[in-house]
Amino acid sequence: MSEMKTASQSRQPTPVERRVSIRSSLARRRDMKAMASLLAVVASLGYVLAQTYIVNEMRPAEALKVASRLSIGTREEAADNFMATNGLRVGYSLTHTNGTESTHYYLLREEDQRIILQFSMSSGSAQTNRLLKTGWISSGTNSETKQRINFTNAPKAVNPPANAP
Length: 165
Fold this sequence. Notes:
- This protein is an alpha+beta fold.
- The protein folds into 2 domains: 14-49; 55-148, no CATH class.
- It is 38% helix and 21% strand.
- Strands 1, 2, 3, 4, 5 and 6 form a 6-stranded mixed sheet that branches.
- A hairpin with a 4-residue loop joins β3 and β4.
- It is elongated.
- The termini are far apart.
């Protein structure tokens, strides 16, 4: 009886069995590729849907008062911290391709308006030291100026004059 087990265990598959085995292997590979593709699509869709923006509840007039308390030449991080301390969080920021300028958008729920602050590097400063250049409030889907922000704080001197006392 032990001879029968050994004989059946060492039996080679027939050509038909070999073809069926290859087909099932190819089918498993095809199914795995399909599942991986489906997973990639679902993950991409989840990533796209996860893109959310912070919208501030502050009214445009109040937001304009807060932003106007900044001054030309304020460092980018300091301006963001000041705005956040006063109830406005950045909705999103864009850095231009050369890295010397960036634009921060503070989205406001009322009337689909936004405060836009633009920062630019001064000559010779590191790319992390962009300074406030201008700001405005806009509405709708474009970023055209509705009203410029008049910064009430005195401009900060980036380089003091050489003959200053």
